[in-house]
Amino acid sequence: MHPGPEFSVSDVYRGWGEGLLACGAQVVTYDLARRLTFYDAARIDGQPVADAEGAVRLAAEGLLAKAWRTRPDVALVVHGAYVPVDVLDALRAGGVRVVLLHTESPYEDDRQLARAGHADLNVVNDPTHLGAFQAVAPSYFQPHAYRPAVHRPGTPVPELAADVTFVGTGFPDRIALLEAVDWSGVTLTLAGQWAGLAEGSPLRERVVHDLDECCPPQLTAALYASAGMSLNAYRREATRPDLVAGWAMGPREVELAAAGVFFAREPRPEGDELLPMLPTFTTPAELADVIAWSMAHPDLRQDAAAQARAVVADRTFHRSADRLLREIQKEN
């Protein structure tokens, strides 16, 4: 089941579908994003068919009809924030095993835990609160993965070339970080979801697509192939302040490493353990220092990027899907 938002989670959805197919599973997809768009825009005599909550319910309940027609063994729900829990309960009552793939740990674990008890199996992307998930239902930690057909070294596109390229969501703390860096003499390219940029932000002119649009995987791949370096800054927005600190690397780190891109990273235990060849930063000034070093040492940065690529080589969605299928069998 598609997560709904067309952000990085949609790439996770595509990756899992590809991985399951590669494992020999029969995969039927449910495109929640288009249904959400349809019901949100639907009008009768100029009046909305449903309010925002009603549109979400109408979009999600179609999953029950799809399950009735296709009779799946398992429903893999990616993200799950736009699926009412009674829909999950109805699937299970009909004999379908529900697997919830939680993509927002640890930041939204309060909300995710509220759904976790309505699943037969939970898969979390950060193990910080894994014990709490296991207390309500079988659960395990699955590290982030990449799509080999998309996240790989590519041919640079001259018009997309930049000293620094960042693809991601423009959370307020990320915006503040990038606005605090002196970009004089440095070309910066931004892509992803940056609709939150203020009218006067100097970063607006750095976004390579319309602010109201997201960055498709093909553009992401081309941007990475054309980047001198990138960076990973963890989000600070969470349902509670104590949910900010995580353990696992983020999806962008795995994708960047798989694509052979040198990048600066904020410290985090898993990254510190696996990617010590890549520099860390905690302040705008430290990030600026890494950028200056990267521009002055292109050969050394590529050596570090090659080492990082080797570290994540086995983190494919194929391997993730294979594990999921084995975990499902264990729970039978």
In brief:
This protein is 42% helix and 14% strand. By secondary structure, it is α/β, with parallel strands linked by helices.
SSE inventory with pairings:
Elements: H1 8-22, H2 32-41, E1 43-44, E2 47-48, H3 52-70, E3 74-78, H4 85-93, E4 97-102, H5 109-116, E5 121-124, H6 130-134, E6 139-141, E7 162-169, H7 172-179, E8 188-193, H8 217-225, E9 227-232, H9 251-258, E10 263-265, H10 269-274, H11 284-296, H12 298-311, H13 317-331
Strand fraction equals 5-15%
Distance between the termini: 22 Å
The helix content, as a percent range, equals 40-55%
Number of beta-strand segments: 10
Low-confidence stretches: none
Major sheet = 4 strands, parallel
Q: What is the alpha-carbon Rg in Å?
A: 21 Å
Question: What string gives the helices and strands in order?
Answer: HHEEHEHEHEHEEHEHEHEHHHH
Give, in spatial order, the strands making up the sheet with the most strands.
Answer: 3-4-5-6
Organism: Klenkia brasiliensis
Protein name: Spore maturation protein CgeB
Pfam family, one: Glyco_trans_1_2
Domain Spore protein YkvP/CgeB glycosyl transferase-like: 177-325
